[in-house]
Amino acid sequence: MVVVTLQREKCIGCNYCVEMAPTQFQMSKKDGKTVLLHAIDKKGFHTLKSPDNTIYDDCVQAQKACPVKIITTKMV
Fold first, then answer.
1. For a 10 Å CB count at each end of the chain, is N or C smaller?
2. Is the separation of the CB atoms in 7 and 74 below 8 Å?
3. Strand partners, 42
């Protein structure tokens, strides 16, 4: 299982995560910040738990590309 967490409030809207993992991230037209698709929000931490291990590499690339380091990806 892959667990991806996004601290959305700290997003600067650079779009790198969308470029690296377009099936997991989208930019919001409302505020220009990224959205982690199918995530659950708990106190500003948006978390996606996916049984699809094929998303891991793309999400790690998004994590590495993020200039404000608000994305974490782990395999559990």
1. C
2. no
3. 45
Contacts (Cβ under 8 Å, ≥6 apart) of 14: 66, 67
Q: Select from 74, 66, 76, 52 the least CA-distant residue to 8.
A: 66
Cβ-contact 26, 37 below 8 angstroms? yes
Hey, what amino acid is at 55? I
Domain 2-75, CATH number (from 3.40.190.10, 3.30.70.20, 3.30.460.10, 3.30.2130.10): 3.30.70.20
What is the C-alpha end-to-end distance of the chain, expressed in Å?
5
